[in-house]
Amino acid sequence: MGTFRPRSVTEYLQVLWRRKLLIFLVAAVLLISTFFVISKIPDIYESRASVVVAAQQADREAISSRVAAITERLTSRSFLETVIERHGLYPSAVRNGAIDSAVGRLRKSINVETRYRGDRPETLIISYRNSDPVIARTVNEDLVSLFGNMNDAIEKQRAKEIEDLNTEIAEVENQLNQKGQQRAIAAARRGVGRSSGNVGEIRARRQTAIASLESLSDKQFALERQIAEQKQQIAEQQKIVKSAPSDARSGSSYGVLLVRKAELEAQIQDFTAQYTDKNPKVMQAKSQLAEINRQIAQLSAGDGAGAPANSAEARELRAMQRELSRLETELEITRRDMGRKNETLATTPNLPAVASVSSPGPVAAAVAEPATDVERLRNRYTSLLNKQDALARMQSASVGLDPGLFQIVDQPTQPQTPAGPDRMKLRMLALLLALGAGLAAAVAIEAPRLFAIRDDRDVQYYLGAPVIAQIPETLTPAERGRSRKLLAARSLIVLLLAVITVPALIFLLNQLQVFQILASRW
């Protein structure tokens, strides 16, 4: 028919009810296939680590660039290739030469979350997912090791800068001493006299000592202020350590370990009744139980007064005490330098400037030129000392649990429970797909019938005349038997087709990797 008879919602529901067996069969086939694929998806374990970026606010641009550089390094091809080779990841892709595919899969399994305070990065959360918890931890350790390498590179760079600065300071001091001697020699050669030559040398030596004392005095004042502030912070941290829980068993990690230990013991008992001690499942469960017992013993060893020795509060207190010791040592060195400069200044007489010279013309020019060089060298010497103090303050700016710019607060741990996949979400999605496929099959079969004359309502709509009576279809016994056989044959064919479709769908879904991709993201 060329036209379409409008139907009510009830009629459409009746059509779907008439095809309920088809809807059920298609949905059942798809549900069985998808549930089997979902059940075969391995558990995913996630290892996490947190790194704190410790830096002054004035260094935010340099710190942001370093954080961006190390983040790019974490996901770079060269670094990920070494990680794949070291841990034997994705062996099938590596054997087939698809190293780009392996790098892409590894890059998707790595997540770097950057948390900011204002416009400066403050914390980095590094996580890696793998079906093997041991591999997840070891790979994450390789990722976190980049931050330690960055700390070492920064420390080497700063040490090199300090060494070059000290060398330059020593050279400037030598040049100042040489300039004083040159002025004395030039004055003696031009007939200035021994007394005025000695005066020039003594004045140059005294000016150098005074400039050094001024810089050392500023450095001493800054160190004393830092030491006082550090002692105050240590006193506050000691109160925090004393008020922290004294029992390591009060922590949530201890309870999780006890629960996991009970699960492993029950699992080993079940395995012992079925397998021998050499079975891989038994050996793996026992190794996990030994690791759990080691961690419990380590936590129990921290019991005592105050916080445990390996707690974050205690580690921070020890770091503060080490920093205080370093500052006190530096202050003592500064005081000794000041003492030596004071002795030099005390032994150098404070002579007035030479009022007149015997040969004013050439002698004045000869003396004025070294005086200008001395002034320039003295300014250079002062700027170098200020730069040295700035580097020292930069070194003591980041005080925390670990030395360096990047402080690893939480080391990568071996996960005990899987972080994914979310099988409930996957099964709900499979159920929706199965129902949709069943309804689509019913609609595909019933859609052509909507344009045909099927009952009295179609006759009345298309012919415009009411239906007075309906004559039911009558069949002979032979025709009814043939109809039953035909129905049974059709049902058998449909059932066989459904049985064949299930493994075909499983193979297709495994090739498309649809649920595996969704599982990695959920």
Walk me through what this model shows.
The protein is an alpha+beta fold and 522 residues long. Among the domains are: 9-41 and 423-521, no CATH class; 47-159. Helices cover 71% and strands 6% of the residues. It has 16 helices and 4 strands. The protein has helices at 9-18, 20-39, 60-74, 77-87, 91-95, 99-109, 133-189, 194-243, 252-274, 280-300, 312-347, 360-395, 423-446, 456-463, 477-512, 514-521, and strands spanning 45-53, 110-117, 120-130, 406-410. The protein has a 4-stranded antiparallel beta sheet with strand order 2-3-1-4. A hairpin with a 2-residue loop joins strand 2 and strand 3 (120-130). The longest helix is centred in the first third of the chain and has 57 residues, at 133-189. The radius of gyration is 42 Å and the shape is elongated. The model is unreliable at 192-197, 247-251, 353-368 and 397-402 (pLDDT under 50).
Give descriptors for this structure:
522 residues, 16 helices, alpha+beta, 4-stranded antiparallel sheet, single chain, 4 strands
Helix-strand blueprint:
Elements: H1 9-18, H2 20-39, E1 45-53, H3 60-74, H4 77-87, H5 91-95, H6 99-109, E2 110-117, E3 120-130, H7 133-189, H8 194-243, H9 252-274, H10 280-300, H11 312-347, H12 360-395, E4 406-410, H13 423-446, H14 456-463, H15 477-512, H16 514-521
Antiparallel strand pairs: 1-3, 1-4, 2-3
